[in-house]
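[step 3/7] fold_predict: job queued, chain A
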Amino acid sequence: MTLNYTATCLFGLEGLLGEEIESLGYKRIENMDGRITFEGDENAAARCSINLRFAERLYLHVGSFTATTFTELFDGTKDLPWENYIGRDDEFPVSGHSIKSKLFSVPDCQKIIKKATSVRLGEKYNLARLPETGTRYKIEFFLFKDKANLMIDLSGAPLHKRGYRPETVDAPIRETLAAAMVKLARPRENVLLWDPFCGSGTIAIEAAMMMKNIAPGLKRTFVAENYPIFPSESWTAAREEAESKINHNTQFEAYATDINDECVRIAEESARRAGVADMINIFKMDALDIDTLGRRGTIVTNPPYGDRLLTLEEAESLYRAMGQAFASLEKWQIYVITQSENFPKLYGRRADKIRKLYNGMIPCYYYQFFKNQDAKK
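[step 4/7] structure written:
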């Protein structure tokens, strides 16, 4: 059975997510900012939920249609085969977004979609009133340029919640963004990866999980496991497949350091829960004391932002000090994410590449320094 799915992601990660989907053997249908729609069978829900490292949520894509009036929204919703997914007793709350569309009132759209779905299901099940006491199916709509996309959430908790980080520090980086930063930094077996502002250890943990090939969703559950359309054995098979692909022989090593004792403690606990404590050396250290230790290495880090953990003046002073301290790292590559558009000037080097990414809804810049300028000279 061929089904359509939609996976959402942070802006800027569409390319990485699309490559992941195709690597699992599924065909992309549509790409747009923050989401990719693709084809898959009934087993794709389990395999994608467990394996997608850069996705925020996974949805079953029920249908799309043009809706410039509430009548069109009602009729288009009512025409979709909701009874194929939602049972006679099941609950189906509605939420969503509207962007650049004539139907801009989200509460009104929610009411119309809820009513149209209720009418359709009532007719199919011959019920004047639906009990909504059974399994919960969350309907999500996305109106963009007058095109309505109606979906059913398959994730429950967002996919970035891997389960290893119940405790966090202030202003934590999202796991999906940390994974993307690591991927773009091209981690390698024989190159030390070091995050000198580790916070709760997310960047180093995501790097270790990636290099050990631990599926990000292996240790959590998903609401779609309760949906009859997806065979229960598909979830068992997907977890067994993911377990079989773990690389227990990797020699990859990461360092995660921070000047804060509490950060070190939380990072240690998170690494243990993620199953990668043996791959990460976590300890207290001032980031400005970093040294190559005679090894090849890559810095991947998320230093404090000016409006989150430090004042703007403090952040700018830190960035200047980082430039001076990291200049001693010879041929190491440096990857830094920050909100600051002036980071290269403060750091004292022109970035070889800049990529705009988002930490949640916060726009950031991922500055990539491939070779130390002193080494070039």
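[step 5/7] annotate
DSSP finds eleven helices and 14 strands in the chain.
The radius of gyration is 23 Å.
exit 0
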